[in-house]
Design goal:
With 251 residues, the protein is an alpha/beta fold. It has helices at 44-52, 74-80, 97-106, 116-120, 123-136, 151-163, 180-194, 207-213, 231-236, 238-245, 247-250, and strands at 4-15, 18-29, 33-37, 59-64, 67-68, 82-84, 169-173, 200-203, 216-221, 224-229. It binds adenosine-5'-triphosphate (ATP). Adenosine-5'-triphosphate is lined by residues 15, 18, 20, 38, 40-46. GO terms for molecular function: ATP binding.
Length: 251
């Protein structure tokens, strides 16, 4: 299909005798949220790392925006537009929200902090950073210390950092983790809007969020995709009910 932006083909990754991912294929299309669910240890994070480039696959390929990115490093893939949300630990807590976003726009790590003052004077980077903050609703907090943001706002700042590189797709590993019920609800609304900026491959344990957001859901069990379909199809799939959702939850 022409609107397929990310095309993951037959990925394998073993750790010793353990097949963490075992012939995984999936696609991500323009405008959609494709959720990847599965029990603990199913291989979800491994797969995200293989797609982002942090973990080399034993075999298989990743095609992105019509290009085979399999040989590329994480940095090359990020520059090509494969956006992965950063962990909270990568934010510089003592710096302002805007400074963190500018660092993202610079596409560098915290090591560049000592060059910070001249960087902040570069109007283009600041503009790019402010655009990203506006998109995630943090523009009014630009001058705030990152440490003073709520947990949910820090998650949004991570997304803003990724947005500064103008990603064509997002890879997100458990964005709801640790947010609590109201935070998860807020983040769900936020991600729903974000799909207009770039489609999202979403690894998430929060089933309310997954069923509310996902256009398609793929279920990974023991490294293999056992089912793929809409929320209604996944809820009704007998194999999924037994292997993952549990009969009583799926009823
Ligand atoms: N670097 C590694 N070395 C050895 N084994 C690993 C490594 N990374 C992951 N594994 C194993 O591979 C399997 C898949 O792990 P992975 O973290 O991808 O699962 P997951 O579906 O993301 O789990 P969770 O939902 O708990 O985050 C697990 O059995 C895990 O212990």
């Amino acid at each position: 299909m022409t609107d397929v932006l990310l095309d993951v083909r037959n990925l394998h990754k073993s750790f010793g005798a353990l097949k963490a991912t075992d012939d995984v294929s999936l696609t991500l299309r323009t405008g959609e949220i494709h959720a990847l669910i599965g029990p603990n240890g199913a291989g979800k994070s491994t797969l995200i790392k293989q797609i982002a480039g942090g973990l080399r696959s034993d075999s298989g390929s990743v095609h992105f925006a019509g290009q085979d990115v399999t040989p590329m490093t994480t940095v090359q893939r990020a520059r090509a537009g494969l956006g992965r949300t950063f962990q909270i630990s990568s934010l510089a807590m003592e710096y302002t929200v805007l400074q963190n976003a500018v660092l993202g726009a610079l596409g560098q790590s915290g090591r560049v902090m000592r060059f910070f003052a001249p960087v902040m004077r570069q109007q283009k980077l600041r503009e790019e950073a402010m655009r990203a903050l506006e998109l995630v609703g943090l523009a009014d907090h630009a001058a705030k210390r990152t440490a003073d943001l709520s947990h949910g706002q820090r998650r949004q700042l991570e997304v803003a950092v990724a947005l500064t590189l103008r990603p064509k797709v997002f890879l997100m590993d458990e964005p709801m983790a640790g947010l609590g019920a109201s935070g998860s609800k807020e983040m769900t609304g936020f991600l729903d809007g974000l799909r207009r900026e770039a489609p999202i491959l979403l690894v998430e344990h929060d089933m309310d969020a997954v069923f509310a957001l996902a256009d398609r859901i793929s279920v990974l069990v023991y490294g293999q995709i056992i089912a793929s379909g809409t929320a209604a199809e996944i809820k009704a799939d007998p194999q999924v009910r037994v292997a993952y959702l549990g009969e009583e939850d799926a009823a």
